[in-house]
Amino acid sequence: MSVPKLRLLFSSSRKLHYVSPPKIPENAFVSDSILPRLVTAIHEQRNICPLAVHDDLEKFGLQYRKLNKLASDCEMYHPKLQRLDGWGGRIDRLVTCDSWKQLHDIASTEKLIRIGHENCHELKEVWQCVKLILFSAVSGMVSCPLAMTDGAATTLTKLLKLHENCKPGECSVCSEEWKSKVSEAISNLTSPSPDNFWTSGQWMTERAGGSDVTRATQTQALKDEDGVIRLYGNKFYTSAIDCQVSLALARYEKNLSLFLVRLPQEYDGTVQIERLKDKLGTKQLPTAELTLNGVPALLLAEKGIANIVPMLQVTRLYNAIAATSYLRHVTALAHDYAQSRSAFGTTINNLPLHKMSLAKLETFTRALILQTVDLSLIINAKVETPSLSSGVSRVLSAVVKVHTAQVAVTTLREGLESFGGAGYMEDTGLPGLFRDACVLPVWEGTSDVLSMETMRALSRGTAQADVLRYIRELAMGWCVLGGHQYSEELEECEQLEIPLLELNQYLTELEIALENSQYTGRSVAMGIGAAHAAAALISFARYSHNSSDVAAARLWCKLGLTPLNRIDPQDISDVLL
């Protein structure tokens, strides 16, 4: 009996039409539309040779496909908690996949932390920032413990320097043993050797509240009969619990103090994993609720809140780096997919509406790259310049974190749409990128919390005027990224006149919005972030005179300057009745 032709047409043995998946770039650095030129420009503006940095980034870019494969393994094999052994004894053993460990080793050997802490290059912050932008989206969430590790190393380095001249008995915190332990921790947290490399946790959040650690922290630090300080309490949200050390806040005597905890190598009951968190995304990352039951801790600073500021600046920068990296990764895939996917008689990169979508992805990616690299320069500035004051660093650390996170999540959702149904399918790996990015507006302070912090920072001294002046001077070419006073006069570019006009009008509206921002602080913070991104795009286009850079600046000022909400407070109260 013959098989009907219709059945043959749909037979599984028949070779059906195959949709080519987007290709992972062979070299993520060389193929990027802006990163190589940006690295060169920043070096040229400071008369520094970029070859060493370029060579390292090119070599690292060649690992992108390998990193993406390891990250995919981490997404497939999530960490698990083995609470009991075969005899019913509690062991709290964390089981992670081999790829998670390999990514830690790569982070160490590639000196992703160490670059920022050794005097290896005059623009080490740019080198480290760009390398992390290449790494984060394909790190299998190892970028999270790296953020906390860099934050811990920065905090410990500043504390060690603060106490370097202390003599025995002069300080209630410092001693020779203290200096030795802090030095050992810094050495291991920045080690290029996987065998010696430590990662750090960050034990702040408790049940009573998240960002409001001053009121919410209930963990107690008590000194035992041997003079050892031990911590007792519950830490509700702790990420990367396979770390070797952690910074922790606890109440000690009359203060909320900062401590360094060395985690026990074998389970001894002093740190108990109550459960692993079941999260929307970042499932590759072991995040847990911990009970501290007398774990030994080293007192770092009696005033804890004041001394975690350096850590927060670092981790917020890493948050912006992750947002930038995710968006950059999806944009690269969307460009490649559009060249091979056909619809309506042509490849979709020729369809006007899809070209518009790709142009928006590209523009928003460049905006986030530029403002993130600018922030890395600002927070690492050695001295203040006429364009850059300390107030600018405090405000933009919060603002750039809020802005990059919000823009990344919104634009990533649109980016997934550019793949059609494939963007919704788990086995393409695309939905996981979106879910992971959803943590970015939450981690290290929600958008509302950081917007309130921004409003407080702007109200101090001349901070508001300083921030707005920096944005204007960056756009006008009176300084370049990082507030650097470029020695040569930049030529005028007629094509940038319209975006400059639009930015100046927007800044005028922003000044008006700042006068009454109690309820619209989030809109204002996003507005400052959008204006900062516009200034960075215009600044780079003014220097490069590249038509693509000019177009990106023009498009951002049409699409990226977020509306500034003017809301009647009474409407807010009435709608909640």
What does this structure look like?
The protein is of the alpha+beta class and 577 residues long. The protein has helices spanning 5-9, 35-45, 51-61, 64-76, 98-109, 124-136, 143-162, 176-189, 213-216, 304-307, 309-340, 352-379, 390-417, 430-437, 447-458, 463-476, 497-514, 521-544, 547-559, 569-575, and strands spanning 80-84, 90-95, 200-203, 220-223, 229-239, 245-252, 255-262, 271-276, 287-301, 342-343, 346-347.
Task: Write a concise keyword list for the protein shown above.
globular, 11 strands, two-stranded antiparallel sheet, 577 residues, single chain, seven-stranded mixed beta sheet, 20 helices, alpha+beta
**What fraction of the residues are assigned to beta strands by DSSP?**
5-15%
Estimate percent helicity.
Answer: 40-55%
- Structural class of the secondary structure composition? alpha+beta
Largest sheet: 7 strands, mixed
In short:
By secondary structure, the protein is α+β, with helices and mostly antiparallel strands.
